[in-house]
Design brief:
Belongs to the ABC transporter superfamily. It comes from Pseudooceanicola lipolyticus. GO terms for molecular function: ATP binding; ATP hydrolysis activity. Keywords: ATP-binding, Nucleotide-binding, Transport. It holds the Pfam family ABC_tran. By secondary structure, the chain is an alpha/beta fold. The chain has two domains: 2-82 and 159-257, P-loop containing nucleotide triphosphate hydrolases (Rossmann fold); 89-157. Helices cover 37% and strands 25% of the residues. The chain contains eight helices and nine strands. The protein has helices at 49-56, 74-79, 98-108, 113-126, 142-154, 172-189, 200-206, 240-257; strands at residues 5-17, 22-34, 38-42, 64-69, 83-86, 160-164, 192-196, 209-214, 219-225. The chain has a six-stranded mixed sheet, sandwiched between helices. Helix 3 runs parallel beside helix 5 (142-154) and helix 4 packs across helix 5 (142-154). The mean pLDDT is 93.
């Protein structure tokens, strides 16, 4: 059924055209995601993870193939603010309070003040920033900034949340905590998630499926199912099946590195 599919990528290619040479960043990439699915993209540097995310988010147009999100083009979804993006750097507006940063996409979408503030407060609670509504971004730690960025990305209740190494710059303990927050947010909201990560452990902890990519040109090497029980917790890492999946994933990843 079409409306149960989140993203559908068919035979996607993406070529960056340069003055001297072209780079084929993606070739023959096909992937179908179900609504509410959590998919991680992992692979060596340059295998096209960010490029794939950017195509899904309509920041780049495919050179070939097709991409649909809930049966529509990424352009239509982006213009309707049905796609949320979070990058490694939170990129909050320093002159707006945390609340006003989170409410910004709704403001740009023309939502009335009362509604957008109510939504922003709800999200502040969801991401664990209660008490920081009036704070300035510079008063937040790195982890708190990422929480605010996630809340902002969720403010328009997107169909798809795209995360490009959102926790890459955080220390391990903060990263563990935010992983658990993300798992909970995913459970509560039912949003479909695509996460780019360099950590197989993070991918196994959070995902329903792990897409292992390989470079030159960027393509899908293998898709691993991750059937670990939900809800996930840090205790999930103590399961023998967790370690099995990490080992399996690492083996697949190493094959990709053979092409680097
Ligand atoms: N704007 C650009 N112009 C030309 N080539 C680019 C551009 N952006 C990325 N590339 C090239 O496309 C390929 C895929 O890059 P991409 O950033 O998608 O990989 P990645 O897997 O996300 O890498 P990383 O893990 O280092 O972030 C690489 O060879 C990269 O050099």
């Amino acid at each position: 059924m079409v409306d149960e599919l989140s993203a559908e990528i068919r035979d996607l290619s993406l070529v960056y055209k340069g003055r001297h040479q072209n780079v084929t960043a993606l070739s023959e990439v096909s992937l179908s995601m179900e609504q509410g699915e959590f998919v991680s993209l992992i692979g060596p540097s340059g295998c096209g993870k960010s490029t794939l995310l950017r195509v899904l988010g309509d920041l780049l147009s495919p050179s070939g193939g097709t991409v649909t999100i809930k049966g529509r083009t990424p352009r239509a979804e982006r213009l309707d603010r049905r796609i949320g993006f979070v990058f490694q750097e939170a990129a909050l507006l320093e002159w707006r309070s945390v609340l006003d940063n989170i409410a910004l996409p709704l403001e740009l979408h023309g939502a009335p003040r009362k509604l957008r503030e109510a939504k922003a407060r709800e999200l502040i609670e969801l991401v664990g920033l209660t008490g920081f509504e009036a704070a300035w971004p510079r008063q937040l730690s790195g982890g708190m900034r990422q929480r605010a960025a996630i809340a902002r990305a969720l403010s328009t209740e997107p169909d798809l949340l795209l995360l490009d190494e959102p926790f890459g710059a955080l220390d391990q303990i903060t990263r563990d905590r935010l992983n658990m927050e993300l798992a909970r947010i995913h459970e509560v909201t039912g949003v479909s998630v695509v996460l780019v990560t360099h950590s197989i452990r993070e991918a196994v902890l959070l995902s329903d499926r792990i897409v292992v990519m390989t470079p030159r040109p960027g393509r899908i090497e293998r898709i691993l199912d991750d059937p670990l029980p939900r809800p996930r917790s840090l205790g999930t890492r103590l399961l023998p099946e967790y370690e099995d999946l990490v080992r399996n994933g690492s083996r697949e990843l190493e094959k990709g590195y053979a092409n680097v």
